[in-house]
Write a structure and sequence with these properties.
alpha+beta; elongated; about 220 residues; about 25% helix; six-stranded mixed beta sheet; six-stranded antiparallel beta sheet
Length: about 220
């Protein structure tokens, strides 16, 4: 029968309270820095373009939202190829255009035939919001694995001891396009036993059948 050991009740409360507070603060930080608009900028000198993220305060979002270079060289910010590339980046990051919003030059460049900077309001998609819930909410519950003992080492990581005495490290990392599970083993968990997969069952396979794991 699987045993999931989280420590004594007192120790558990002592650990959970700081983590809960940390997650709460991180989630609040994410909400404050979450982009509400994006700007496509094309350098008049190099003709290179980049997508910039704008938060609710009107400034650039923190390092999590660093500018994203857009391939190619471009005449100005409202060229179709620039906006198409920007739209692709938005979709990959879990954002969409706000209802009724459209690209337009930033104030000060409106009426310019070749604006260097254009902007549009954006909103987070359901997939993005669900990702934040997983990032800052409870970690997944592990199923029963006969003969395997799981011990939580840190958020999203479990030490798994299998019947033959070997220990593996099971990790879970939330992603927009499917959360990743990996299994590592060997000296200081330096061996990648199960490369990243979106299937928990595939990650648990080597724990259910440790003879399939590399020695």
């Amino acid at each position: 029968m699987t045993t999931i050991n989280h420590g004594s009740g007192h120790a558990q409360r002592a650990q959970l309270l700081p983590e809960d507070r940390r997650l709460e603060l991180n989630r609040a930080s994410e909400e404050r820095s979450r982009p509400v608009a994006v700007r496509a900028y094309v350098s008049p000198i190099t003709s290179r373009a980049a997508l910039h993220w704008v938060n609710a305060d009107g400034g650039n979002s923190p390092s999590l939202w660093d500018p994203v270079p857009l391939d190619g060289t471009h005449a100005h910010a409202l060229r179709d190829e620039v906006l198409n590339l920007a739209g692709t980046v938005l979709a990959k990051r879990g954002f969409n255009y706000a209802r009724g919003a459209y690209w337009q030059p930033v104030p000060g460049e409106r009426g310019t035939a070749r604006p260097a900077t254009a902007e549009v309001a954006v909103v987070a998609t359901r997939a993005y919001l669900d990702l934040q819930t997983r990032r800052f909410g409870p970690t997944p519950e592990l199923p029963e694995v006969p003969g395997v003992t799981f011990t939580t080492t840190q958020r999203g990581q479990w030490s798994a001891t299998v019947p033959d005495g070997r220990t593996f490290l099971l990790t879970w990392t939330p992603h927009l396009d499917g959360d990743r599970w990996t299994v590592r083993g060997g000296d200081q968990n330096s061996d990648l036993i199960r490369p990243a997969t979106t299937s928990m069952e595939k990650a648990l396979f080597v724990l259910r059948h440790p003879s399939h794991a590399r020695h």
